[in-house]
Amino acid sequence: MKLWEVIVVIIGLALEPFNEALKKGANQWHLNKVTLCLVSLLFAIIQTIMLGIGMITISLLMENLHIEGGLTFTPFLAALTLIFLSMKMFRRTFREHSFVEKREETMNYKALVKSACILGVDALILGILLALLQLAIIKNLVLTFCITSVSVALGLWMGYRLGMKYHVVVNGCSGCILLIIAFRLVMNCF
Question: Taxonomically, which superkingdom (predicted)?
Fold first, then answer.
């Protein structure tokens, strides 16, 4: 995968925390800069840790098994993984949710950690995929941290200002991005 493809995949993955932040922002009575920064850092750190766990585990496994030059089926496995993640996002898009915007005084950080860890599973899967493609670990961790933190901050702010108008569109866009990259990976094999 080229750098721009990795960036697009990470953006697609970061749209999921963006959507969660959109919901949390819509529920805030008052959103200050400290809360915005804390929530952004929380999601970014958990996403980065999960991506790192996936990448480091598979990299060490491949190194211990002495697999040089990667596996021949890796692009197809990568495409299947991206298709799986995109279908998961589409399922969330089309599932009916009744969401009531109610303003809360404080941010529930315990619930935020729980939802960030749940969303981090997708980052773990992506980390495994990126390690199988033998991509640079540090560069991907830095990209994930930066993109996720900006995405969550933007989601909180937009949710606070606009409410929940666009949360369905965000999941749909996220799924489309991952499907396009999966298609591109398969086409590069031929």
Answer: Bacteria
Asked whether the beta carbons of 122 and 19 are under 8 A apart, the reply is no
pTM for the full predicted model: 0.78
Contact 50, 148 (CB under 8 A): no
6-41 as b/e: b if 16+ CB within 10 A: bebbbbbbbbbbbbbbbbbbbbbeebeeebbeebbe
* Structure token pair of residue 157: 């702010």
How is the chain split into domains, by residue range? 3-189
Per-residue pLDDT of the chain (190 residues; tens, 9 = 90+): 788 888 888 988 888 898 888 888 888 878 889 989 999 999 999 999 999 999 999 888 887 776 555 555 677 777 888 888 888 878 877 775 655 556 667 778 888 899 899 989 989 988 988 888 888 889 999 999 999 999 999 988 888 887 766 666 776 777 788 788 888 877 776 6
- Dump the DSSP string for 65-87: TT--S--TTHHHHHHHHHHHHHH
Q: What is the torsion angle, in degrees rounded to the nearest 10, for the CA atoms of residue 31, residue 37, residue 43 and residue 45? A: -170
